[in-house]
Amino acid sequence: MNYTVIPNPLRFTKKNVEEIFLSFGGYDYGKISKRVLQILSKVAGEFKINLVIGSSFPKKIFWNL
Prior knowledge:
By secondary structure, the chain is of the alpha+beta class.
């Protein structure tokens, strides 16, 4: 029986998060974007947040984030 042992791939992780990408769909019915941003505002450290919103995202919600 011939076989080859494949090693586990090396995984590199950063200790500090520098950037977070968020996307919850075009409309975000459950206002998840706002809730996640509120939670992230309480996290220690500095990081950039990229929130992608669709054209159906209500402006009223956007301006109250």
